[in-house]
Design goal:
Oligomer: single chain
CATH architecture: Alpha-Beta Barrel
Radius of gyration: 18 Å
Structural class: alpha/beta
CATH class: Alpha Beta
Number of strands: 8
Distance between the termini: 26 Å
Number of domains: 1
Shape: globular
Helix content: 40-55%
Bound molecules: flavin-adenine dinucleotide
Length: 305
């Protein structure tokens, strides 16, 4: 019930415009993002780097309405890539294709992504996965760029029933894949409803990815979850397959399971933390609260504390 309400709020334009203007709401987001500027995200990346944790940064915002806005986002990320290279931090970028113009056209979006991937040099540019209605177009754009360049990765969601087939179809490209459970409200016609089914799907997909990696048929597998059971399963499978800890990564979001991020790093695992920044954080923040409604109490405590 609470999850559905928070996911509804994440798509509500009125709340999206009004709530972020309140200082107390902005303050409550600090647990999940170090600040609104790129500089804040890179400062945090440098701090993670000091303890051996790599990062990915992402500018919050989705569904631009004009080609000019999409070009603005492209310019922002080109600048971000330069700043990352100048600071020498182990940081990649990840982005939503609707922020690069996916609603306006697939061809133009592919051209913008291609420019970014080229500018990134050896670093991987990650493509987020959004609502199920965008999956076909997102895969189409990803394929187009991956066929020309190696350093592009794609996020896939285990809650979608179609993902098993999508992954199988993509494997011949030897893609870098970030596997997550999925963060949007999706209908039962396309997504598993029960947590147990989503988890089972996550484990099956992790197995496919790690097996392909062990057989030299996949790019970098990134296991994106805070769920200790999923992480334990991934590590167990990798061990069984004799896949070294340096051949796959575990990724988490900034501010979530921080102690676990450090523990995994100390035990020789590769950990990457995704840091969000930017002014359009409302829908994203509601999705974070929806993942764990107990976080709502954390917000309430901050407000009264
Ligand atoms: C690196 C990364 C990239 C992502 N990219 C995408 C993307 O492109 N598209 C997309 O749809 N989704 C993305 N997500 C979000 C993802 O789909 C899930 O919504 C999110 O990771 C929560 O699922 P979980 O696997 O952690 O497991 P869950 O079953 O939701 O949670 C397992 C446990 O993790 C902890 N936990 C989980 N979430 C929170 C939270 N918000 N606050 C505090 N504790 C929490 C709790 O202990 C919980 O019991 C990404 C997640 C990560 C880590």
């Amino acid at each position: 019930m609470m999850r559905q309400a928070l996911l509804w709020a994440s798509t509500n334009p009125f709340m999206s415009q009004r709530l972020p203007s309140y200082e107390f709401v902005r303050k409550a987001t600090r647990r999940f993002m170090p600040g609104e500027e790129l500089q804040d995200a890179l400062d945090a990346s440098a701090r993670f780097g000091d303890v051996g944790i790599a990062t990915t940064v992402t500018l919050l915002g989705e569904n631009v309405e004009t080609a000019a806005e999409a070009d603005g986002v492209l310019d922002h990320y080109l600048g971000a890539l330069t700043a990352i290279q100048e600071r020498g931090v182990d940081t990649e970028i990840s982005l939503k294709l609707t922020s690069l113009g996916l609603d306006q056209g697939v061809g133009e979006t592919r051209a913008r992504l291609d420019r970014l991937v080229e500018a990134a040099g050896a670093a991987t540019v990650w493509v987020d996965m959004e609502y199920s209605g965008y999956v076909d177009r997102t895969i189409e754009v990803f394929r187009g760029v991956r066929e020309r360049r190696e350093n592009v990765g794609l996020c896939l969601q285990s809650y979608l029933k179609r993902t098993e087939k999508d992954l199988k179809d993509l494997l011949p490209l030897e893609p870098a894949i970030r596997l997550v459970k999925g963060a949007y409200a999706e209908p039962p016609s396309v997504a598993f409803v029960k947590k147990a089914q989503v988890d089972q799907s996550f484990i099956r997909l992790t197995s496919t990815l790690l097996r392909a990696r062990a057989a030299g048929r996949a790019g970098r597998p990134v296991i994106g979850t805070h769920d200790p059971r999923m992480i334990g399963e991934a590590n167990r499978m990798a061990h069984e397959l004799q896949l070294g800890k340096d051949r796959y990564e575990i990724a988490m979001l900034y501010g979530i399971q921080s102690a676990e991020q450090q523990r995994l790093t100390r035990t020789g695992h590769r950990v990457r933390v995704l840091i969000s920044y930017g002014k359009h954080w409302f829908p994203w923040y509601m999705r974070r609260l929806a993942e764990r409604p107990a976080n709502v109490w954390f917000v309430v405590k901050q407000l009264v504390g």
